[in-house]
Specification:
The complex is a heterodimer of chains A (about 375) and B (about 575). Chain A is of the alpha+beta class and about 375 residues long. Chain A is built from 9 helices and 20 strands. In chain A, the strands form 4 sheets. In chain A, strands 7-8-9-3-10-11 form a 6-stranded mixed beta sheet, with helices on both faces. Chain A has a 5-stranded antiparallel beta sheet with strand order 2-1-4-5-6, with helices on one face. The two termini of chain A are about 35 Å apart. The chains are: A alpha+beta (about 375), B mainly alpha (about 575).
Chain lengths: ~375, ~575
């Protein structure tokens, strides 16, 4: 039974100035057994706080958390099970391997706490070390090992008690990019073998997309959208989610006499009017979903203002009216800076204009 | 490649060669100053102990070491130091853990109270506790004997136990500050990962937290041990009347009794060798202990550690903490200040017994006291300025120039850190009272030289910390803009470390104002320092006057500390 359930969970922190900030606001969530579920969002969005509440490092300000059919935190009843009694596995961003213990002692720690017999401990540790490819390093101290190996110690230590739920707090962000990719694969492989539920926190969208069955995008302590990676990317529910996953252009547009215009441009955008269009809005497009061509094939007239060679494409920054859009083209299209061009848009999405308030609030939350 | 060519980025051509000349000059100058002020006194102690009439002679040393009275004082020194270390460490760890990891309230207040013993000389505490718990005359003992009607005092502060108690009160912050800072820097997830692995709070403290802060504990404990081994003030005030001697007080007694005869100074030198041996043994143990555990426990993400809820014990523990802090920190200061206002020692603290006559006396009528305040101000400011520049010069050579002989320079500048003040004083007497055609004995200059030697390690440490923050590229940028080596030093490096230099000055000025151990052996008829004046008035039984002067010293030290706080706060804002 490893279904994780959060009901109306909130967490309020006092700030130094004496005010308080809601790190998490009224969060409802069910993470199914065996799922790989990630919390994604900018720093300060409340994702780490949520994970720490599940782990038991933070008490709740309101709401309940259930692990399977066992309540671990219920604010109303003042019920709070400390982390050591929740039976979870956890891996931290800083690895948190103990420098005064060698590899064996690090991994054996959770078993020694439980006072298991020596032979059982040796057997379980050996198995965990095999799973994490650390066999043979039992007597080594963490300081003599690489970052990737330290991370494996942390993983081995987390799986050695065979927990049903594994919490990962930005487990890969201290590793270099190559290692990160192979560790992603290894974590998935471990999950397949040992069959636990994974809940993990990251600010790296590629990591979240690659690992997760479902993910939750958070901002300002609130749920923005929870769904599969594919659904989040293709059907983002808000401008924030659109902008957070993948590259994006947000272009101000306005409605003039039945046509859409970019402010400062006298050419209408070559597209259907979206249903329920407001007088002013934002058009969201992905740089690789815009076609740029030197010839007028029914596109919107623009001027190339900058050209950058990226590895797998050329990025053109094209100016329409007073807005600039990034466009990713194949290397076959070559246009000088300053030349006119024409843009056509695939799958644009429409959002209302955002007030500046959210940005300010985001900055304020960084401070606490 | 020559000894100075190792400096990265040294410009080729004439500019580089000119710079080399300056660097080389600084290297020679700092080595020479340190050899004369630090190394020579040590050598002179050894020379005068073992060489007599131009020939090696062990007999005097053997006789001094074999003397039962001296052996007894070695025993006392070690016993006191060990007790102080054990008690101070336990107390320091306990408070550090409470402040660093529990949810006890009033942490800010308690932390600032803990820094108070740091500011004041331990012999103030010895004076205060003697006023309260001297066997016959102490206020508390008299109250106790009145209440019980007996003649046995509650506690005799003039004893080994009393010395241990007072030194513990003043030295436990060494461990406290080290451990608090280790706990604050420690990655909280190291403890959290143990909790999630199934370990309860006490298990985590025992198996994870304590082992990880062990290096900090060991460093603090060794500081206590070495400070207590070389400490003079407390055993002098509490021990003399009962014939309890430690090595430093025994050395002092030898010098005083010999009244300047050379034989007496030689015997004191022999005892100094003994004290050095004890301290070096302690330092050796420290090196061994510290080598075993150097972990990187610095946290990556800024995160508040999970505080342990004391729940029901919260208020009782807070009460115990505040009460013990009151006894350790506030009470002695309050007693000294109150007694300073009494018409005579022994009178009850009642309004009609209070007077400001003591202050009038010490501030306006006593030539000796006025001299001592002026002397201490002069010595602290002069040694502060000189030593700070000396420290910057040595640190510059060690950190930036890195010549081949920098190891010697580093050792020389850090040696006084572990050299007992009383030993340094003996060495300075041996060097500067005519041995080398220059007799400064009984002048203020001999004290100034001793202060410079004593505090050069503080200055050197603080200056190298600031210099290490100044990246090579900053000086190189100035050179590439056409500045000469001297100009880049003057216009770039020095301004950048100026805040550190100001803080470094106060780190010398403040201990200089309360210095007793060195100056008590070096003062002449007109060169008493503030510490010596307070100490000798107290020793002569002028209790109320010495308390009044101590109160004035408390005021000066507090003002200096406020200035230091203001200066370092300013630095953070920049």
């Amino acid at each position: 039974m490893s279904r994780i359930q959060l009901k109306g969970v909130s967490k309020v922190f006092p700030t130094r100035s004496g005010a308080s900030v809601a790190a998490v606001k009224d969060l409802d969530l069910v993470i199914e057994e065996g799922e790989c579920f990630s919390f994604l969002g900018p720093s300060g969005c409340g994702k780490t706080t949520t994970l720490r509440m599940i782990a038991g490092f933070e008490d709740l300000s309101a709401g309940e958390i259930w692990l399977g059919d066992r309540a671990v935190s219920i604010k109303e009843r003042n019920l709070y099970i400390p982390p050591e009694q929740r039976g979870l596995g956890m891996v931290f961003q800083s690895f948190a391997v103990w420098p005064h213990l060698n590899v064996f002692e690090n991994v054996a720690f959770p078993l020694r706490v439980r006072d298991l017999p020596r032979t059982d401990i040796a057997e379980a540790v050996a198995q965990a070390l095999r799973h994490t490819d650390l066999a043979g390093l039992e007597g080594t101290f963490p300081a003599d090992l690489s970052g990737g190996q330290q991370q494996r110690i942390a993983l081995a230590r987390a799986i050695v008690t065979k927990p049903r739920v594994m919490l990962l707090d930005e487990p890969l962000s201290n590793l270099d990019p190559k290692l990160r990719e192979s560790m992603r694969f290894e974590i998935k492989e471990l999950q397949r073998k040992l069959n636990f539920t994974i809940v993990f926190v990251t600010h790296d969208q590629a990591e979240a997309m690659a690992l997760s069955d479902r993910m939750l995008v958070m901002d300002l302590g609130k749920v923005q959208q929870a769904d599969t990676p594919e659904a989040l990317y293709n059907r983002p529910a808000s401008r924030f989610v659109y902008g957070f996953l993948g590259l994006s252009n947000f272009t101000d547009v306005e409605l003039r006499g039945g046509d859409l215009y970019v402010p400062g441009s006298k050419y209408p955008l070559p597209m259907e009017l979206p249903a329920g269009a407001a007088r002013e809005g934002v058009m969201a497009t992905r740089p690789n979903e815009i076609t740029l061509s030197p010839k007028d094939e029914g596109g919107c007239p623009a001027v190339v203002v900058k050209r950058l060679y990226l590895t797998y494409c050329i990025e053109y920054q094209a100016r329409v009216g007073d807005q600039t859009l990034r466009v990713h083209c194949p290397h076959s299209i070559v246009l000088e800076e300053g030349r006119p061009c024409f843009l056509r848009f695939k799958n644009p999405r429409w959002y209302p204009r955002e007030s500046g308030r959210a940005e300010i609030e985001r900055n304020e939350r960084q401070v606490i | 490649m020559n000894a100075f060519g190792t400096k990265p980025g040294a410009l080729p051509g004439t500019a580089g060669r000119r710079g080399l000349g300056l660097d080389f000059g600084l290297y020679i100058l700092s080595t020479a100053i340190l050899v004369i002020t630090v190394l020579l006194p040590v050598l002179m102690i050894a020379y005068n102990t073992f060489i007599d009439g131009g020939r090696l002679d062990w007999r005097m040393f053997v006789r001094v070491v074999g003397d039962p009275g001296n052996l007894k004082s070695v025993w006392n020194t070690v016993v006191i130091a060990l007790w102080v270390t054990v008690l101070g460490t336990v107390l320091g760890i306990f408070y550090a853990w409470l402040i660093g990891r529990s949810d006890i309230p009033l942490k800010g207040l308690m932390k600032s109270l803990f820094t108070i013993p740091y500011m004041f000389p331990p012999f103030f505490g010895a004076m205060a506790w003697s006023l309260l718990l001297a066997p016959r005359s102490g206020y508390i003992n008299r109250l106790f004997m009145d209440l019980t009607g007996g003649t046995t005092p509650l506690f005799n502060m003039h004893s080994i136990a009393g010395i241990v108690f007072v030194e513990t009160c003043y030295y436990f912050p060494f461990v406290f500050l080290q451990v608090v800072s280790a706990l604050e820097r420690m990655d909280p997830t190291l403890e959290e990962s143990a909790r999630i692995a199934g370990a309860g709070q006490w298990y985590v403290i025992r198996r994870i937290t304590l082992p990880l802060v062990l290096p900090a504990i060991a460093a603090g404990a060794m500081l206590i041990l070495i400070s207590s081994l070389s400490h003079f003030g407390v055993p002098a005030i509490l021990g003399f009347s009962q014939n309890i001697f430690t090595l430093p007080t025994k050395i002092y007694q030898l010098i005083r009794r010999s009244a300047g005869s050379f034989q007496g100074i030689r015997e004191a030198a022999a005892l100094s060798i003994l004290l050095i041996v004890v301290v070096v043994a302690a330092l050796y143990v420290q090196k061994r202990v510290l080598k075993t555990g150097r972990y990187d426990i610095i946290k990556g993400k800024s995160m508040r550690p999970m505080l342990i809820k004391l729940r029901g014990a919260r208020l009782p523990i807070l009460a115990v903490c505040l009460a013990s802090l009151g006894v350790i920190v506030v009470l002695p200061l309050a007693v000294v200040i109150l007694v300073g206002f009494l018409k005579a020692y022994g009178l009850p603290f009642r309004f009609e017994n209070f007077t400001i006559r003591n202050y009038q006396y010490v501030l306006f009528r006593s030539r000796m006291v006025i001299d001592s305040i002026r002397n201490s101000l002069f010595l602290s400011v002069a040694s502060g300025v000189i030593t700070m520049f000396l420290g910057v010069m040595v640190a510059y050579v060690v950190v930036k120039v890195k010549p081949r002989g920098k190891g010697l320079l580093e050792i020389l500048s850090l040696l006084p850190y572990s050299m007992p003040g009383i030993v340094l004083a003996i060495g300075v007497i041996l060097v500067w009272s005519g041995a080398f055609y220059l007799n400064l004995y009984n002048t203020i200059w001999i004290i100034l030289i001793a202060y410079i030697a004593r505090y050069v390690s503080f200055a050197m440490k603080s200056a190298s910390a600031s210099l290490e923050q100044v990246h090579y590229s900053l000086e190189e940028a100035a050179r590439s803009c056409g500045a000469t080596h001297l100009e880049s030093l003057r216009d770039v490096t020095l301004p950048l470390i100026r805040p550190g230099m100001v803080a470094g000055f106060f780190l010398i000025f403040l201990p200089g104002m309360r210095e007793l151990t060195t100056s008590v052996l070096l003062y002449g008829p007109f060169t008493r320092t503030l510490g010596v004046a307070i100490y000798s008035m107290n020793a002569e039984g002028n209790t109320v006057q010495s308390s009044a002067l101590a109160t004035i010293a408390i005021g000066i030290i507090l003002a200096g500390n406020l200035a230091l706080r203001w200066v370092t706060k300013d630095r953070k804002g920049a």
